[in-house]
Design brief:
The protein is an alpha+beta fold. The protein has helices at residues 48-70, 73-80, 95-112, 118-131, 140-145, 159-177, 181-197, 211-222, 225-237, 271-288, 291-307, 339-356, 359-375, 415-424, and strands spanning 34-35, 41-43, 391-392, 431-433, 437-440, 446-449, 455-463, 470-479, 482-486, 494-498, 501-503, 508-509, 512-515, 521-526, 530-533, 545-550, 553-558, 571-573, 580-584, 587-597, 616-624, 636-637, 639-641. It is globular, with a radius of gyration of 24 Å.
Length: 643
């Protein structure tokens, strides 16, 4: 997504009342790193992430609120209380779209203190309160189309999934906006879940995991142990009794119900379900321990990121069931790569960072955020991709969730409001703390308040990252601990100076540079050349091809930059040719490269090498993958065959 990097007059937003972010563990004994309060980090609107947050607040969030009306999500709720005679519209989980938008509003209020959404909050609370039944139950789908069938179809009805998003919205509004009214509403439903599925209730869990991580966070916000116990029971029972969800044509793997959680070591089935489940399992581990749970999510993470992740950080290679494929099954043109899967991976990898501590988790957050997630939203913030292919062919036959262009909304609208809630909470991903250090995980212009156990004052970060690798960190106050800066795995080299003095041989340990206490200024310069990366040899779909990257940013070749040239489907990259980085004002740089192409329209479908058309030189322009699709329609590709 092209974001303006020019200086802004406003600077970071003023400090807000202290409040936690989306993840706030109570049990600290198992934390490798601690999250900072969301209010402790303020992103500068002149920077890459800060500009994105500003766009989210000004465009994506208001657009999403408007679409809740036109898409039917809010009318579905009104029809339950007799205020709409329209038919139920959309999928059985349409309520979750409302809840994700509410969550985004909660984090946005926490970020800026805005009152722009007060009317929406008041009207929606009034509606939800009237729809909610006396014992806490709330589902416009079941109440409005299948009355009397509560929790009768755990496999598909998504009641618990929607409850999870309601709970997360309420926690966000409680933390970010100081509102207890939504929290009370969500607790009424959560209490029903405890009575129904908790330690004293019947066995059961949702076909679409999500409520597990939400119940853990509600426990963290309230201290009410039964919420945690119910989440733990759902994790413990999953995969133990196939009769609980029942048989389905998609199979037990689709629902992550094929094996107990502690024995499920491969990312499989519906990608979003798997990743949300893993986030919940990691949350349960953080609060209650169990080394087998940690071992399982570590194995799951390795499976997903070392064998099943696209170079953009996207997850899920199959359209049929929106699922992970086999190991190394990563076709670029048939990539499903659902936006929600990338978002879920950002959320899960952040939890793994807290649980396990390795910089590789922050690397994964950065890769997915700056590529797969960023590509899903248009430059104006009002149109979205659901599926995110890495290769779009000429004449692509569009599918409902895989169009050639971003669209304003979808009948299955899970992704747009998911983007809104993630971007509104981005500050929570920037930095963490250990017992003796502040760790900067994502490089973004802004301010970070020092946690009390590490001193007093503010750390100020100045950078145009990822436009370049230069980062300046100033300590304004007293840092009694030390500062640690993540060195991304992609960085081939760096230069470091501390208080103006060059450090000739900076020491990197476990992916972090350590800066001693008492330091006032750190200047880090990460080498960021344009490079051509190849996939693992078993990724047959792109064997003999490379992708252009620069730092954390993945690039693509788009027809819009070659209007008079050959189809980008015919181009190949000249091996060993120069990759020239060309800066752009207000946007990330371009990469210029040398390629070759041959007219292939008349070439036979199969033939010998002697029938291959003759090549001619072609200059190539590559743009950040996150920007593609904002101009004239046409083919696009990330992976370029070598000539």
């Amino acid at each position: 997504m092209p974001l303006d990097l020019r200086p802004a007059d406003a600077g970071p937003a003023p400090a807000r009342p202290a409040h936690a972010g989306p993840v706030d563990p109570r049990a600290t004994g198992r934390l490798a790193q601690r999250p900072l309060p969301a209010s402790a980090v303020r992103l500068d609107p002149a920077g890459h992430l800060g500009r994105w947050q500003t766009l989210n607040a000004a465009a994506t969030l208001p657009h999403s609120i408007a679409m809740l009306e036109t898409s039917g999500a809010l009318p579905n709720l009104r029809r339950v209380v007799g205020e709409s005679d329209a038919e139920y519209v959309g999928y059985m989980f349409a309520d979750s779209d409302v809840y994700k938008v509410l969550e985004a509003v909660g984090w946005e209020i926490g970020r800026t203190g805005t009152d722009a959404f007060d009317g929406f909050l008041a009207d929606t609370l009034d509606l939800l309160t009237r729809v909610q039944e006396d014992d806490g139950y709330l589902s416009s789908y079941v109440q409005g189309t299948r009355p009397g069938e509560r929790f009768a179809d755990l496999r598909w009805a998504h009641e618990l999934y929607c409850a999870g998003h309601l709970i997360q919205a309420a926690v966000a509004l409680h933390r970010g906006a100081g509102r207890d009214d939504y929290l009370a509403l969500a607790r009424r439903y959560a209490d029903l879940l405890v009575r129904t599925f908790g330690p004293e209730g019947r066995a059961g869990y949702c076909g679409h995991p999500e409520v597990e991580t939400a119940l853990v966070e509600l426990y963290r916000a309230t201290g009410h142990e039964p919420y945690l116990a119910t989440a733990r029971r759902m994790v413990d029972e999953r995969g133990q009794d196939l009769a609980l969800l029942g048989p389905d044509r998609l199979g037990a793997h689709y629902f992550q119900d094929h094996a107990p959680v502690r024995e499920s070591l491969e990312a499989t089935g519906h990608a979003v379900r798997q990743l949300y489940l893993n986030a919940g399992v990691t949350d349960v581990y953080l609060e209650q321990g169990d080394d087998r749970l940690l071992a399982a999510v570590r194995a799951q993470w390795d499976s997903a990121h070392h064998q099943k992740m696209y170079v953009t950080g996207a997850m899920g290679s199959r359209h049929f069931d929106e699922s992970f494929g086999d190991a190394y099954e990563l076709p670029p043109d048939r990539a499903y790569a659902e936006t929600c899967a990338a978002i879920a991976d950002v959320q899960w990898s952040q939890r793994m960072l807290l649980a396990d501590g390795g910089s590789r988790y922050a690397d994964a957050v950065e890769r997915a955020l700056l590529n797969a997630v960023a590509a899903s939203v248009s430059a104006d913030g009002r149109a979205f991709f659901y599926s995110n292919p890495l290769h779009l062919r000429a004449g692509h036959r569009e599918e409902e969730n895989a169009p050639s262009r971003r669209t304003p909304w979808y009948s299955c609208a899970c992704c747009p409001p998911n983007i809104a809630r993630l971007v509104a909470s981005l500050a929570a991903y920037v930095a963490t703390a250990t017992d003796d250090a502040l760790r900067v995980q994502l490089y973004a212009a802004g301010e970070i308040d020092l946690p009390a156990h590490l001193g007093t004052g503010t750390v100020r970060v100045g950078t145009a990252y990822p436009a370049d690798g230069r980062v300046r960190v100033d300590v304004d106050g007293e840092l009694t601990g030390h500062l640690e800066l993540r060195v991304p795995a992609w960085a081939p080299g760096l230069r470091l100076s501390v208080d103006g003095a060059p450090v000739p041989e900076p020491r990197v340990v476990d992916g972090y540079l350590t800066v001693p206490s008492g330091t006032r200024r750190v200047e880090l310069d990460l080498d960021m050349p344009a490079v051509a990366v190849a996939a693992h040899p078993r990724v047959d779909a792109v064997r003999g091809a490379v992708a252009l990257t620069r730092g954390p940013v993945v690039y693509c070749v788009e027809q819009a930059d070659h209007p008079d040239g050959p189809s980008v489907e015919d181009v190949r990259l000249r091996p060993g040719g120069a990759l020239v980085v060309e800066p752009r004002a207000g946007a990330l740089p371009l990469i210029r490269a040398q390629g070759v192409a041959a007219e292939t329209d008349d070439a036979p479908l199969y033939g010998t090498r002697t029938t291959t058309p003759a090549d001619r030189p072609v200059p190539l322009t590559a743009v950040p993958y996150a920007e593609w699709g904002n101009r004239a329609p046409g083919p696009m590709r990330v992976w370029l065959p070598l000539a």
